[in-house]
Design brief:
Chain lengths: 134, 134
């Protein structure tokens, strides 16, 4: 059911410093920051040959990652995203297995313009998992 | 300098339950557990089309991930691993940038039989980063 690891999302307290570290020290291909006001984040995409790293920084007063940064002031890995072909089929299989889907259970349009869902971390090895339909 | 994301390592309190979830619910290709006594872990490799997930569980009395599980009883993402072509050159560049390398600073042979180093999470967006020479 799951396909590629689409990205690893890392919440960071200083977006420019983190982007500079990946660009200048690690020599990665780092894209310019993108404001995603609908998701309460500014995102920097880092392109690795086989997947992406997404640096996330809070945008606005109601960012979903502010609480994470309050608990993890140095930043940290916020979630991982797996690709699926059919997000509704994936959701139904997961719910049938006892896993909880966050929010209403209906997919939303994610930062890449594609339907996404998040699974409850307690049901997935303590890991916040995003599913993205590709 | 960095190449592929080699793997995402997730520490889990119940290796069989986590492996079953990836295999049966998510439909991923899950390999049998491998004991790595030199690293104090039992590892289950999950093969995604573009990278790997490594489920880690403590092995023996002095496992480096026991403390992580004590703090995160449901499990969680423990580290991410980037591939590099020349680990000594990568290390020297990182140290010159002010990043700290864990341990002696000399590469060890990792769970894949290749030289690895770990970087201090405080110097990398709160994320434990492993570098593996490929």
């Amino acid at each position: 059911m799951i396909g590629n690891l689409n990205h690893v999302a890392i919440a960071v307290p200083d977006l420019e410093a983190a982007a500079a570290q990946y660009r200048d020290t690690l020599g990665a291909k780092v894209n310019p920051p993108q404001a995603e006001p609908d998701h309460g984040v500014t995102v920097v995409f880092i392109e690795l040959p086989n997947t992406k790293i997404e640096l996330l920084h809070p945008l606005g007063n109601d960012s979903p990652i502010q609480g994470f940064l309050d608990k993890n002031p140095s930043g940290g890995i916020h979630h991982i995203c797996y690709e699926v072909e059919d997000i509704l089929a994936a959701r139904d299989t997961l719910i049938a297995s006892g896993a909880r889907v966050l929010g209403t259970g209906e997919p939303k349009i994610g930062a890449h313009g594609k339907p996404v869902l998040f699974l409850h971390p307690k049901d997935f090895t303590g890991t916040l998992v995003e599913l993205e339909q590709v």
